[in-house]
Amino acid sequence: MSKNRGVVYLEPGKVAVQDIADPKLEAPDGRRIDHGVILKVLSTNICGSDQHMVRGRTTAQQGLVLGHEITGEVIEKGSDVEMLEIGDIVSVPFNVACGRCRTCKSQDTGVCLTVNPARAGGAYGYVDMGGWIGGQARYVMVPYADFNLLKFPDRDRAMAKIRDLTMLSDILPTGFHGALRAGVGVGSTVYIAGAGPVGLAAAASAQILGAAVVMIGDFNKDRLDHAAKVGFTPIDLSQSDRLGDLVAEVIGTDEVDSAIDAVGFEARGHTGGEQPAIVLNQMMEITRAAGSIGIPGLYVTEDPGAVDNAAKQGSLSLRFGLGWAKAQSFHTGQTPVLKYNRQLMQAILHDRLPIADIVNARVISLEDAPKGYESFDHGAATKFVLDPHGLLNAA
């Protein structure tokens, strides 16, 4: 293993690629773990959730190695790893999960009870998620490897579709979870808030689930243009402050069967200022009676940069009475990636889901990660994929 390098959070608005320690088969508290593997990171993506931290909107500490969307090659394994071999190429769910606790056994791996002493749920390179070192790096350690890792069946076939398969670690299962939880099925009318990568992944998921109409709303013209280019119906939110009217222009009624919030707590309204509850309230307004709302967009328990004291504690001004009156269902929380990633891998390998093109994936070097963060922060209609070893473009 050569010297490790990783993307490190320095302060609000600033990341840098620095030398970091080589990974060891150790837990964050220093305990030896023989159920883990060391991966050579083949691809690792910049996520909107990372961007929240980099903007200073969480309690992330200086020095945090970022990155929870990881695809890699096994180069070392512990003595308790039985199902994986050196050289296997694998997808890493962003959830760190033990596979042994009550929630893991029910496939609710997003809220594993053992990998994070602070709360339910663990993740790589993320604030308050257990201290697991992030994977925007050349090498990374993954615990509970037999349980967590999805092995690709054929190395050459995997490398040929690596730009698509790299999306299995987070945004594609997250978008799929949002669509499934929103009750999307054959003939559904669907509205998705946010035309970023997760919103586009939700739209692609709605499409393969059989939706009749898939609308995506945003203020960002470039992202709306790309959404239209890949086959979805763009909703330009700058055209009206009444979302139902914009929806009615497309489907003839101001209510949809299913709504998906792919924006989260940094949502903005027509004034340009932050309104952290606006998307959730709009979802309740435009979703039909007894309809469902999927919420893969991130909401946090602490937001130092929030617009008011309540929002700083994750308290939002919701019209919950409206949702109750309409008997709507709300589904929140981190996506349990293991519940979906194998099926979605099959869809990719058999050419049913060209997700890299749908989210406009762009491969850049690990050293260019700060430029990728800056561009993404300015609203680029792109999903940035980091290539730590220069292997993706060759593939």
Automatic annotation (TrEMBL):
Q: Which InterPro entries match?
A: ADH-like_N (IPR013154), ADH_Zn_CS (IPR002328), AlaDH/PNT_NAD(H)-bd (IPR007698), GroES-like_sf (IPR011032), HCHO_DH_non_GSH (IPR014184), NAD(P)-bd_dom_sf (IPR036291)
Supply the name of the protein.
Answer: Glutathione-independent formaldehyde dehydrogenase
The UniProt record lists the Alcohol dehydrogenase-like N-terminal domain at 35-153
Q: State the SUPFAM superfamilies in the record.
A: GroES-like, NAD(P)-binding Rossmann-fold domains
Write down the required cofactor(s). Answer: Zn(2+)
The protein's superkingdom reads: Bacteria
Write down the CDD domains for this protein, in alphabetical order: PFDH_like
- Please give one Gene Ontology molecular function term for this protein: zinc ion binding
Q: Which residues form the Alanine dehydrogenase/pyridine nucleotide transhydrogenase NAD(H)-binding domain?
A: 183-241
Keywords associated with the record: Metal-binding, NAD, Oxidoreductase, Zinc
Kindly list any coiled-coil regions of this protein: none
Q: Which family does it belong to?
A: Belongs to the zinc-containing alcohol dehydrogenase family.
Q: Give the species.
A: Sphingobium xenophagum
Q: Which Pfam families match?
A: ADH_N, AlaDh_PNT_C
